[in-house]
Design a protein that fits this description.
The protein is α+β, with helices and mostly antiparallel strands. The protein has three helices and two strands, in the order H-E-E-H-H. The relative contact order is 0.08. The chain has helices spanning about 20-25, 60-70, 75-95, and strands spanning about 35-40, 40-50. It starts with 19 loop residues before the first helix and ends with a helix.
């Protein structure tokens, strides 16, 4: 049986919400890395586990960091969070000098 099409409205920034039932059917979850592409006028979105080698765009690096952190033990996540907060505090201190 063919699934009934779902119609969504794109917002002013080009975003479209992928409905929960479609995310669940494809195994997509918060923080997952997705590859967005276009072929023959059709936009595709695919969950991936790794970004392409050599892609150092800010978006790719952020996606990689999110994916890596999700797989780390909780104590390592807390350690990284503490280091990030320390860096933010240092930058704030430098701005006020």
């Amino acid at each position: 049986m063919k699934a009934k099409p779902i119609y969504k409205i794109m917002d002013g920034k080009g975003r479209v919400l992928i409905p929960k039932e479609l995310r669940a059917a494809t195994g997509m979850d918060y923080g997952d890395i997705v590859k967005v592409g276009v072929s023959q006028g059709t936009v595709s979105v695919k969950k991936v586990d790794l970004i392409e080698v050599g892609d150092m765009s800010p978006e790719a690096v952020e996606a990689y960091v999110h994916a890596a952190i999700r797989e780390m033990p909780e104590e390592k996540q807390i350690s990284i969070a503490a280091k990030l907060l320390e860096l933010v505090d240092q930058r704030k201190g430098q701005r006020h000098e």
